[in-house]
């Protein structure tokens, strides 16, 4: 790894590491991944460092923010700005504001989204996949299922890995729609095991995520007792 890139990665994670030392602060926080929805990027038990003010601040960042949700939850952020496609974000779950969830941003306000046989079609262009070979999903602690790993590429040449357990599952085909203002379309990297924007809030999913719910951007795996080689992994 070139020295300049290594130094840049360390500097970019400095707020996360400082936040880890203080456990929780206005700059950074640490969360433990409880589910398989972001595999292979995040594994069950990973402790992730989150930069809190990445997208500005809202009452969602406060300890009792669930009681302070504004009537119009599509805005209400101080110094707010939108994530980039591909960012891994933590947020108050729309179905239960007491819970913090984590997903990847795929669509921004105004984007036209569809899913065809599992592939995301973004503004009329299908996101390319590269087959990375067989993999496994830890569906729950100690239970592994066969899967296939793909590298998906977002606009701007942003790459990330995803898992597929099957072809043409129940969440693999969605008619085109436009992401409304003040909302995001988010997905788990484990495409067949994630209650994300493809699943309505009424059904326990995220639905279209209001920007108010954002709490920060996940930047690194601080450590994982179950997967020690993932410690200090930059996302």
UniProtKB/TrEMBL annotation:
It is a single-pass type II membrane protein. It holds the Pfam family Peptidase_S26. It is an enzyme of class 3 (hydrolase). Its EC number is 3.4.21.89. It is found in: Membrane. Keywords: Hydrolase, Protease. The keyword Transport does not apply. One of its GO terms (molecular function) is signal peptidase activity. The keyword Ligase does not apply. Belongs to the peptidase S26 family. NCBIfam families: sigpep_I_bact (TIGR02227). This is Signal peptidase I. It comes from Gluconobacter vitians.
């Amino acid at each position: 790894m070139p020295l300049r890139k290594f130094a840049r990665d360390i500097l970019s994670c400095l707020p996360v590491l400082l936040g880890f030392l203080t456990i929780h602060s206005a700059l950074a926080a640490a969360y433990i991944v409880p589910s398989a929805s972001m595999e292979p990027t995040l594994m069950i038990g990973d402790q992730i460092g989150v930069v809190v003010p990445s997208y500005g601040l809202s009452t969602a960042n406060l300890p009792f923010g669930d009681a302070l949700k504004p009537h119009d939850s599509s805005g209400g952020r101080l110094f707010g700005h939108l994530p980039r496609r591909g960012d891994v974000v933590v947020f108050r779950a729309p179905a239960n504001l007491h819970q913090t969830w984590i997903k990847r941003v795929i669509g921004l306000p105004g984007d036209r989204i569809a899913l065809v046989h599992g592939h995301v079609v973004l503004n009329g262009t299908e996101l390319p996949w590269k087959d990375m070979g067989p993999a496994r999903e830890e569906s729950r602690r100690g239970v592994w299922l066969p899967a296939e790993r793909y590298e998906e590429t977002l606009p701007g040449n942003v790459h990330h890995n995803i898992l597929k357990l099957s072809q043409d599952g129940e969440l693999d085909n969605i008619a085109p729609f436009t992401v409304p203002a003040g909302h995001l379309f988010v997905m788990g990297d484990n495409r067949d095991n994630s209650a994300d924007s493809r699943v309505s809030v009424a059904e326990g999913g995220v639905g279209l995520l209001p920007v108010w719910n954002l709490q920060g951007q996940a930047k690194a795996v601080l450590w994982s007792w179950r997967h020690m080689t993932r410690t200090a992994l930059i996302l």
